[in-house]
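Quick log. Single chain, no ligands specified.
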Amino acid sequence: MATQVFVINAAADLKVGIAGAADAAYTGITAGDKEVNFIANGKRSVDLDAAEVVRVTSYDYNAGTAQVSTIDLSGVASGVTEYVKIINTTLGTMNLPIKNFEGANAAAIVALMTAEFAKASSEFAGFSASASGEVITVTAPINGSFRLAGANGSVIAYTGGSTAVMVPSTGEAADVTKLYDLYAGYDGITNRVGFPVKRPTSPVVAATNYDLVVVEAVAKAGSKDGMSAQKGELIKLIFAIDESDAAIRNGGTAPLADELAAWIA
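-> predicted structure:
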């Protein structure tokens, strides 16, 4: 599947070519238009016909919600060592970072947690913890997730009360940078390190929030192997658009997602 990411910071950043005509500033497209290609950031998409587009999906900018969970140690029997185990599940792999913290009470355990979380080299860097009586509250950084375990008698809560369920961020500059880098190979950029080959300047503007519009299509072409009449290639175009333009117009007369949806209707 071929995927391209286009970063749109201003209306002038997006241009369009239709049916072989000269590239022009994007001012909208007409339902059913064929051989449409989009131009931004010095690159061009493949030609697409309206009938080849499967769906258009929009995602509004979302700063995300940090996971907040609690563990109540008040039920741990006297004489039993109090401890809390944190499992960092952010990576989603089989070998997950795990850390145990033991202490005389919740405050002592939180002190150990705070020291660990403050280490730049820690696999739990960016986490935070606090204690209220024997209840410990653990907070992950945005886009982080974790599970808890503790001494026998402890009670863990992931929902309700002061907890919060993790919601990933969408459209943060860091998110768009990762997307842009992930699919840079399609544009011939395969160096992931930056040295000794100098990478092109990223079009992502720091501290800018972006809305996303995703176009999914199956571009069809005649088959030459004699086994089928046509072959299809999966195409995905991702437009990251400065969300300060609330209507996502970028030169058109309606939000880009709405115009693209009308194009394929």
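Residues 2-62+170-264 form one domain.
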